[in-house]
Sequence to fold (465 residues):
Amino acid sequence: MSTDLADLPIHALAANIKAQRVSPVEIVAACLERIARLDGKLHAFVEVYDKEARLAAEAADKAIRSGHAVGPLHGIPIALKDLVELEGRIATGGSAVWRSRRSTITATLAQKLISAGMIILGKTHTVEFAFGGWGTNQHLGAPWNPWDGTIHRTPGGSSSGSAVAVAARLVPCAVGTDTGGSVRVPASWCGITGLKTTIGRISAYGVLPLTPTLDTPGPLARDVEDTALLLDVMQGADPRDPRTLALRDSDPMPALRRGVKGLRLARMPASERTGVAEEVLTAYDRSLDQLAGLGADIVELTLPRSFHDYGSASGRIMAAEAYALLSPIVDDDALPVDAAVRPRIRAGASISSREYLEALAERERLKREFAAATEHVDALLAPVTVTSAIPLADVDQKTTPAFFTRWVNFLDLCGLAVPNGADVSGLPLALQIVCRGGDEGTALRIGWAWQAATDWHTRIPPMAR
Fold:
């Protein structure tokens, strides 16, 4: 695959397939070649389905050429975070304890992707049990952020491998999951686009759980249009995940190109700027000015609580539910559990059932409070991370990079991460577009307008050139 073809987003690849300028066989072969050449250092993939992907590409090519295309994404390759079950395949959940664990079911979202004609190239690395935002993994290894070929920097977590694979052009798109920022943080640090969906928008059946109250699957891609296409395929009611029955499908495509003129976009409170890197704030302020120039109304907003307060409440729910699911593993010191992850999960042991239920009740109250405070705005804009990617050697595992993201999960909102700048070293920065639960369409509309007017999302990491 030529460099130009490797850089094409999936909507462009789909157009080329439809016009028979390129075949799924060529695209898959090219992705596999790049994986073989680059992933030895990038360490994005847990397992690559080389033979099966080539066979699927041949079948897709024949079907498309014979007039039997099943949709716009037929023949497009995709990777899955190693929490997503595929019957008969290894699903480690990022844990050395589960190195040989084979799935007995296939996740609903994987079934939907396959039914749309997409070709699964393999599984990507994750933080163990998806509990961590830095992207590290003590026993299975941390993927290498492709924006620095010399220093091993944080790729972001927990969907670390998915983000690295997309950013480095190993695959045009991937699936991640987001419990407290695990799609948006790696999207930010790897310079790609990532969508944290509303709970229930995409079925979590067959996705290894961490915190069922907050877990949400979501797409990672090169740009907003690709993200919208993937959302359209992945969403939908699933009786095996009752939460999906509360949301109607939302077609993001008709409104995608309507622009931002007349939309009321809220600036984050000034108090939230404390401790944020100057380069992040500069990119953030410039983004708001540019959106205002596109016709958006940038407004001030007073929130009833701080992002930190919401995030802390989220942390209690995460720890309690993770411990309930994983205590047999983390309480067995003979098992090889990541030294940073074990104490995060064990913290749930000290949370009583009463405290847990009170946290859930508090969440519902704070959701109503937040909704009232933001009733008259279409979106709240914030950075995704406090800094750009840092060296792994500088990571303090007792902290989290999810300061700007956890509150979105806690309040059951949706959030889109889009590249919006670079620091002095050329490392990517990102803007977060947060909308009401169920309103992914507005977040994508704002993100599309942003990317139509800027080119940050088209930058290529040095290790992908």
Summary: The chain has a mean pLDDT of 97. The chain is about 35% helix and 15% strand.
